[in-house]
Amino acid sequence: MDNPKVTVIIATYNRETLLMDTIGDLLRQEPFREGWAELLVIDQSVSHQDATIQQLEQLQTQGAIQWVRVQPPGLTKARNLGVSLSRGEYVIFVDDDVRIENENFIAAHISSLTRPHIAAVAGRILVPGESPRTVTRKIGHLGFFGTREPGFGSDWSGPTETLRGCNMSFRKQVLAAIGGFDERYTRSAFREDTDVSWRLKKEGFELWFSSEAWLTHLSSPEGGTRDHSITVDVDLIVNDIRFALLNLHGVRKWAWLTRIYGSRVVKAAMNRGKFSMRHKAFMNGMFEVAHEEPWHLVEERNS
């Protein structure tokens, strides 16, 4: 395809059948059948099962996908690479463990992105075996203390305060204008979607939630964007601190940090132990984030 209108990007890491199911669902969407969409698979896996490699190579040879292998793994870096390689006016991000049985999935994203002043869209997320996580107002609301954004399973469309990384889309020009995803959100990149939402809104752009752009997120415990060189608890603490120090000010910043220490250090230690490890992660995170450079300056120096 010479001039795709939309690019779908999957950043993947150590997924096999789940990845191929996600790819298969996307390629059955009308935009791919009609030739005005492209699919980029940004693969951070060191290796794959032989069957997965054969399928990916075949799809690449057929021109159905672009399969790009990169190391080392990092979700935000993989997302930015996908954007840099994309040719579409719109970019859609989905995780590598979703099922898309909704035949209007891509069309619903594009329809929302063409609304006046809308820069990015969060799609509805369903989880097998769970009731949809719904709210009657304020989808994606952060709360003063930074409780996790609710309501992405709601069955109505409207403005949202934040996006969710497993199902989100952007006008590519706008995403590029704010510098893409902040690559300081490393490893599982917790809060990277909150961060990009915050920066878009800071520049005056609006975000939209589309209940029509729904998918099912399997949330597989294996693979994905995980980096096992650091524990999940430490990762959540550091990236939660990173968002607060980079984006918040005054009383709200300190309220957010108080919540992190209370919930991710004290409460988590009461439930699962390892207080010293959690306290150390909090203190190290405060120091690390306070002294790190903007990621694009590091990238320019290393290029």
UniProtKB/TrEMBL annotation:
The keyword Glycosyltransferase applies. Pfam families: Glycos_transf_2 (PF00535). GO terms for molecular function: glycosyltransferase activity. Pathway: Cell wall biogenesis; cell wall polysaccharide biosynthesis. The keyword Zinc-finger does not apply. Residues 7-172 form the Glycosyltransferase 2-like domain. This is Glycosyl transferase family 2. It comes from Sulfobacillus benefaciens.
